[in-house]
Amino acid sequence: MSKQLSSFNTLKPKKNETSAIKKLEKFLTAEKSLPKLISSTGEEIVLPESVYNALYQVVEAMASGNSITISPLDQEMTTQEAADLLNVSRPYLIKLLEQGEIPHTKVGKHRRINCRDIFAYKQLRDRQRSKSLSEFTAFLQEEGFYDEDTNCVDE
C-alpha cells in the first residue's frame, strides 16, 4: 500500500467510518504505551512518538468530523492553493506577495509559496486579529457599549 502524497491531500471522514474513528480515538487516548503496527506477516513495529502524535492529531480531528490536510512544510504551493488556505481571493494574495508580506519565488511566470511561509503568515495574521478584537472589546467596555455579562452590544 504505497501512496504518493500529492499536493495538499484533504481527507474527510466518511459517514460509515465515524464509529471506527471514534473507537480509535478512545483507544489512542486510553493507551499508556505507544501502539504497535502489525503487518500482514505478523511483524510488529512500535510507532515512534512523533508518528503516534501525528496519528493522534489526525484521529482527534476526524473524530470531531473535521477534514484535514497533510503536507510537508517544505513543499511549495501555487497561489491558488495558498489563497484557499488563507481563505482570501487569489488577487488579494498576489497583492500580499507583491508588497513583500509573504516570501515567494517565481518559476517562469508562476509564483510559488513555501508552506512554512504561508503558515507563518497565517499565524501572525490570526494573532493580530485576536489582539485587535480584544482591544476593540476593551474599548467598547470602557465606553459602556458592551455588556460583559451577555457578550452583546447594547442597542
Could you write a compact summary of the structure shown?
Helix content is 48%, strand content 17%. It is of the alpha+beta class. It has two domains: 9-70, no CATH class; 76-143, Multidrug-efflux Transporter Regulator, Chain: A, Domain 2.
Task: Walk me through this protein's architecture.
- The protein has two domains: 62 residues, no CATH class; 68 residues, Multidrug-efflux Transporter Regulator, Chain: A, Domain 2 (Orthogonal Bundle), CATH 1.10.1660.
- Helix content is 48%, strand content 17%.
- It is flat, with a radius of gyration of 22 Å.
- The N terminus is likely disordered.
Blueprint of the fold:
Layout lengths: L8 E3 L6 H13 L5 E3 L5 E3 L2 H15 L4 E3 L5 E2 L1 H8 L3 H9 L6 E3 L2 E5 H29 L2 E2 L4 E2 L2
Antiparallel strand pairs: 1-4, 2-3, 5-7, 6-7, 8-9
Helix pairs in contact: 1-2, 3-4
